[in-house]
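lol ok so funny story. i was supposed to be doing the assay writeup but got distracted and ended up predicting the structure for this chain instead. priorities right. anyway since i did it might as well share w the group, maybe its usefull for someone
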Amino acid sequence: MINKIEHIGIAVTDLKKSEDLFEKLLGKKPYKKEEVASEGVVMSFFKIGNQKIELLKGNNSESPIQKFIKKRKEGIHHIALHAVSYTHLRAHETEADL
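and the output, tada:
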């Protein structure tokens, strides 16, 4: 069973500009930054209560984030859900014929 939204991933072209915007909107700075070189992405994380917003910027033209932005523009890239258990979730999907 899904019990919460873990985070919302937002693809951006300018990480600094997006961080500034979210700092103004939320009244706080990102709590963490991370780079995953193998995926060609830099991430900046903000917390809102128990949920998180993850800003994603591609480092190169071949990164999945840059390809997403080229095809769909900046915006929500993904919504990560937290499930109590994978087995329980799969049982409900089967039951609901998903």
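The chain has a mean pLDDT of 90. The beta strands are 2-11, 32-36, 41-48, 51-58, 75-83.
back to the writeup now i swear
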